[in-house]
Design brief:
The chain is mainly alpha-helical. It is about 70% helix and about 5% strand. Helix 5 crosses helix 7 and helix 5 runs parallel beside helix 9. Pfam families: FCD (PF07729), GntR (PF00392).
């Protein structure tokens, strides 16, 4: 019997807020209502509202400003995100194209990160690496997010805001798909810990070629799994 997937309250809030942003109901620099009002508006608990806002801030759609509250970020390239979501409903090849694009971006990012990294950048990457390791060890619910947070932190080392924006565009759809399809296993997560360490070490040592190589090796199983799942001969 096919399992029925129930959308989480936080996911519903994210989808609704994204629609409001894309339709212009919420404009850049608009301040969102307080958590209490959003909770009443969507008919969910405040914890679900906090989770949704945290994720949207993580993906660059919102930002929290002292004394101003949570505001909508100027969209720019991120407006394309809605187009990607629609595209994924059409064809399985479309999701594979996202995976393929992610590999191209991340291999380049790893190489640039090794060339341009600074100590402050490396400290932040190390924190995300350790946060992922802890999430795996404790089997936390947000393991997949912690994984992507490590990958996104490499953009800081690469000193390229455009690459970071592109990663922010494709990451949410990949993340949602991974959670829905349960792509990552306990074994693959343990292996990812070692691979993340290899990537970090290559970047820290300034070895650009090695950083690109280990990143490509790290992402190869995801590419192969996507091909196998959708029976793609590419």
């Amino acid at each position: 019997m096919e399992k029925i997937l129930v959308e989480k309250p936080s996911s519903i809030i994210i989808r609704r807020l994204k629609e409001m942003i894309e339709l212009g109901v919420l404009k850049p620099n608009d301040t969102l209502p307080p958590e209490r009002k959003l909770s009443e508006q969507f008919g969910v608990g405040r914890s679900h509202v906090r989770e949704a806002l945290k994720k949207m801030e993580f993906f660059g759609l919102l930002k929290t400003q002292p004394q101003s509250g949570t505001v909508v970020v100027g969209l720019g390239a991120k407006a394309i995100e809605g187009l990607i979501s629609n595209m994924l409903e059409i064809d399985n090849n479309d999701f594979f194209s996202l995976i393929e694009t992610r590999v191209l971006l991340e291999v380049k990012i790893a190489g640039l990160a090794a060339k341009r990294r600074e100590k402050d950048d490396l400290d932040k990457v190390l924190k995300t690496l350790e946060a992922y390791e802890k999430a795996v060890e404790e089997n936390q619910e947000d393991i997949t997010e912690k994984d992507f947070l490590f990958h996104l932190s490499l953009c800081r080392c690469a000193k390229n805001s455009t690459l970071k924006s592109l990663m922010s565009i494709i990451t949410p759809d990949i993340l949602n798909h991974f959670e829905k399809e349960r792509v990552c296993t306990k074994q693959s997560r343990q292996e990812a810990i070692e691979e993340h360490r290899e990537i970090y070490n290559a970047i820290e040592s300034g070895d650009s070629a090695k950083a690109r190589e280990v990143m490509e090796q790290h992402l190869a199983p995801i590419v192969d799994a996507a091909k196998k799942k959708y029976d793609l001969d590419l």
